[in-house]
User: Which sequence fits this backbone?
């Protein structure tokens, strides 16, 4: 039964991975850029929220509702993250895109180095956590049986992931912005002919992606502890999630996250170091399957197929 | 139609190649005359030059940006620990470790070279992490605690310093020489075509995948050599230091700032990086932020790097890697 519980916890962890991955996946879907600063941006979001909590002292002034303070601050941090995404596109991505295929990889890695070390310089090496600010939510759970339980925070994160992925799908399918983004992803050079400002669309996409990344970072901070150099690990997990789920497929991201989370938790059952190893191995095996021609069918969003 | 001739050795490159030869001769007698501190620092410089040149071989010529080359640095060190532990004498063990890792890179390349762009970049990092955590399980390594290259205790510090210096110099010359010969040969033409435009190169019959394979294995062997040398100089093998992402930051900086896709550029980048480290390394995190800012600035505004700009503006080429096309009248067209 304990094993079953581990699988369940892994699946719940998968919801978190899907949330971490969707910013990466979305930006790749629209701009064909793998943003190597993705994980660092998530950590930045967590630090920004922590900074706000400390600066406003809301957790105390809100009395009984103090545990809601992080979510109130989120309403401010998310637009800030969106603005950072906009700036990232404006200052870095736009120029990189025009400079050939190597440059985005180089420049976003440069951004990651700056962010990681900048956060280290600002916030120090200590581990931080948003867990203490959300009261019972951080450890509360519903027990299904004696050994099987569902954490309340995990459920909230999983639910958020589903809402975010569903929201993205609805936005891409039914709104004007969504249609424009899809058109731009399909043919960035052609949409200009029908009056679409490609730069503006990319900026909006980057803003959405980085905002979602910040949201994921905040949840990371609530689930566990975070430190300035943790972005790399988040980036790797996000990337693995995207690849396992199928690049360009948003719902695949959820499947990918669950597969990765379950693999990691089963690995951890076998050996304490197995968490990482099992996750990476699962990723590689699926990668090998994909590359050598096995198709794993997954529901696809109205993105075009990833240009191989 | 004008008559023309193809020129490889310009007067400039003849002169410069001779100067390089003379410099190498001076370096070869280094440990006999330099103070110990200088010898050690120069060994570090050799390691950086190897790393920069190998990363450039992959990114600049192969068009493959990897953020996981620390995989081979770590594996090289690990192989040396294992081989040395099995009783193989020090210097044969050094060479054996490098050769083994280059062979290991063959199947890895087969898989990874099917990936593109950012996927290849992060895929390599995942491999590095996987190798890191797997090696931690080896009882000989004792997890993150690491272990030491005990066989080096048999040498006196002076002899060890000099031997490792010569080993570093020899490996640097060998690896850069290999790259140089490759670039001048048939494979070099195809690699440089891939660098300039992969799709166009494939369309005129260049075997793109072959060229990339060669660069991948060379870069893997070169990074393994750097890892082996690093272990020989630091003696202790701590997995997180060998598999750390900071290596990628260093390599990227050196190759990008010096000039991706040029032979001379990464060497200049390595010397620049080495000097920066010598003068600012003590400032720690600020220094790393500076590295990131400079790398980002070069990526966005000077993607050809220092040497790429010099080459493009002045038409100089210090080492005869490419060709110049000359009109018979003497008009240089390049």
Assistant:
């Amino acid at each position: 039964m304990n094993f079953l519980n581990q699988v369940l916890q892994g699946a719940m962890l998968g919801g978190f991975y899907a949330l971490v991955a969707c910013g990466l996946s979305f930006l790749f879907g629209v701009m064909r850029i793998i943003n190597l600063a993705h994980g660092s941006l998530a950590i930045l979001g967590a630090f920004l929220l922590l900074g706000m909590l400390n600066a406003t002292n809301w957790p105390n002034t809100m009395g009984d509702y103090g545990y809601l303070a992080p979510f109130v601050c989120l309403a401010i941090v998310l637009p800030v993250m969106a603005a950072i995404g906009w700036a990232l596109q404006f200052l870095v991505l736009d120029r990189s895109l025009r400079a050939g295929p190597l440059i985005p990889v180089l420049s976003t890695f440069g951004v990651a180095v700056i962010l990681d070390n900048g956060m280290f310089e600002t916030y120090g090496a200590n581990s931080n956590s948003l867990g203490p600010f959300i009261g019972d939510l951080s450890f509360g759970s519903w027990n299904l049986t004696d050994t099987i339980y569902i954490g309340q925070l995990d459920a909230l994160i999983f639910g958020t992931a589903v809402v975010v992925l569903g929201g993205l799908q609805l936005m891409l399918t039914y709104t004007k912005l969504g249609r424009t983004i899809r058109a731009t992803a399909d043919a960035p050079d052609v949409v200009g002919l029908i009056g679409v400002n490609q730069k503006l669309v990319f900026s909006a996409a980057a803003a959405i992606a980085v905002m979602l990344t910040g949201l994921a970072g905040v949840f990371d901070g609530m689930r566990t502890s975070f430190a300035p150099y943790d972005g790399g690990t988040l980036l790797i997990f996000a990337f693995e999630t995207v690849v396992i789920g199928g690049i360009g497929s948003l719902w695949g991201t959820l499947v990918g996250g669950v597969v990765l989370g379950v693999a990691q938790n089963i690995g951890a059952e076998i050996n304490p170091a197995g968490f990482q190893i099992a996750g990476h191995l699962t990723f590689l095996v699926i990668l090998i399957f994909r590359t050598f021609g096995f198709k794993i069918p997954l529901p696809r969003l109205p993105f075009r197929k990833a240009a191989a | 139609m004008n008559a023309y001739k193809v020129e490889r050795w310009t007067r400039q490159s003849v002169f410069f190649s001779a100067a390089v030869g003379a410099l190498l001769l001076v370096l070869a007698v280094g440990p006999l005359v330099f103070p110990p501190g200088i010898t050690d620092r120069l060994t570090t410089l050799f390691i950086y030059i190897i790393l920069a040149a190998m990363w450039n071989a992959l990114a600049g010529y192969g068009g493959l940006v990897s953020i996981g080359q620390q995989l081979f640095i770590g594996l090289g060190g690990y192989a040396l620990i294992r081989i040395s532990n099995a009783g193989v004498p020090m210097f044969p063990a050094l060479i054996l470790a490098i050769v083994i890792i280059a062979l290991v890179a063959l199947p890895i390349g087969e898989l990874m070279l099917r990936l593109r762009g950012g996927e290849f970049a992060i895929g390599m990092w995942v491999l590095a992490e996987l190798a890191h955590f797997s090696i931690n399980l080896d009882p000989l390594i004792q997890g993150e605690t690491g272990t030491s290259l005990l066989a080096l205790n048999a040498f006196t510090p002076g002899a060890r310093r000099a031997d490792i210096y010569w080993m570093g110099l020899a490996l640097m010359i060998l690896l850069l020489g290999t790259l140089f010969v490759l670039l001048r040969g048939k494979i070099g033409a195809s690699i440089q075509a891939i660098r300039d435009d992969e799709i166009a190169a494939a369309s005129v019959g260049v075997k793109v995948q072959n060229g990339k394979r060669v660069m991948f294995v060379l870069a893997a062997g070169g990074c393994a050599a750097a890892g082996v040398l690093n272990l020989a100089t630091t003696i202790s093998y701590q997995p997180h230091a060998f598999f750390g992402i900071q290596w990628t930051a260093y390599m990227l900086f050196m190759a990008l700032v010096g000039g991706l896709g040029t032979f001379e550029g990464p060497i200049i980048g390595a010397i620049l990086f080495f000097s920066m480290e010598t003068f600012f390394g003590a400032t720690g995190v600020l220094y790393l932020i500076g590295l990131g800012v400079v790398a980002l600035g070069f990526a966005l505004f000077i993607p050809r790097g220092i040497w790429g700009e010099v080459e493009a503006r002045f038409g100089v080429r210090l080492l005869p890697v490419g060709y110049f096309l000359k009109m018979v009248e003497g008009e240089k067209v390049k």
Observations:
- Residues 330-334 of chain B have pLDDT under 50 and may be disordered.
- Chain B touches chain A at residues 59, 63, 65, 67, 111, 114-119, 121-123, 125-127, 129-130, 133-134, 136-137, 245, 248-249, 252, 256, 260, 285-286, 288-289, 291-293, 295-296, 299-300, 303 (CB under 8 Å).
